[in-house]
């Protein structure tokens, strides 16, 4: 039954394995997820970069955030004074199964985790300023994109939210909460869905985060793939079965472990470098040092969180910066990371054309010392794979796609209470 698989890895996902959520709160979260009222300039929503049409992501290597227009690969960077000022430095992660009870850390660099270090239940970029009362990691996570300058908040002097976050991160959340609660439909929905909310004026960013978290946890559950059927006795097709055995017998499952196919740890894969980087005030180079952004430990440099592989075939491109357009290319990189990185060319990544940012898109590659540091940080060992074996692995990864992955229970709303357009 589990030939070729580690018994600890071959675990089914059950409905009870997810955090409990309230359906009425999730309904509010669905509307807020697609409502641009949460953004500084009221021109982008959570759903813009995590859209149902793109399986909870955006189909781009590096996203186009605040100031852009459209959805997915067709999204444009805007024009005039409102155009984007920076690419989003990392690939938009998919949302599948983030409500699973085993999830303990979020973001590519793990900068959000469960912890009592600040007295509010989380170790987060907001530290002690993150409000108390958030139900879970997803509720906490939802609060950060809306106060990120290039994602949803906008630039200083453009709106009151962008101005507030440059004072201190928590000063923007009450402004956002007021925007939401004074909309009569939202106010009434919060009163009905939250027992402790007696009037719309009681709604805070905590309830908004909890509603968004409830929606994400309920909406993006997926555990009905052919692989899940295999766990209960239904054979996989021969090529997928060969791929499954290769996956579990060739170190893939050492990192992509457990029911979500992730160890939730951080590893350096030696991916090609490009983009604006996740720069810091004291480190303005256009580079992304990964986990080190959170910990400031050199030992964490260039390491990124292992992504879940469930529905991975639906969420191209791949890598923390979307460096590889296909699963085949990503697998080849795992097989020969040094050779793959050396052979990689900028033309291989489909960055949307943004002429005023083009000069910096690949600037970091000219820094020979930085490139040498990144080459030396590598946690995966080469493994020889034939074309046929790679094809079988790809077929197995497709067998991790849920049968109902494209048919979500709530979906994208046609309208939202603010009256703003829905992407």
Search tags:
423 residues, disordered N terminus, three-stranded antiparallel sheet, Cytochrome Bc1 Complex, Chain D, domain 2, single chain, two-stranded antiparallel sheet, mainly alpha
Q: How does this model look, in words?
A:
The chain has 423 residues and is mostly helical. The chain folds into 2 domains: 17-219, Cytochrome Bc1 Complex, Chain D, domain 2, CATH 1.10.760; 226-398, Cytochrome c-like domain (Cytochrome Bc1 Complex, Chain D, domain 2), CATH 1.10.760. The protein contains 17 helices and 5 strands. It has helices at residues 23-33, 46-49, 137-141, 149-153, 160-165, 173-181, 184-193, 205-219, 226-231, 238-249, 252-255, 292-295, 327-335, 337-343, 358-361, 368-376, 387-398; strands at 105-106, 112-114, 122-123, 266-267, 304-305. The strands form 2 sheets. The chain has a 3-stranded antiparallel β-sheet. Helix 10 (238-249) packs across helix 17 (387-398), helix 13 packs across helix 14 (337-343) and helix 13 (327-335) crosses helix 17. It is globular, with a radius of gyration of 21 Å. Residues 1-8 have low confidence and may be disordered.
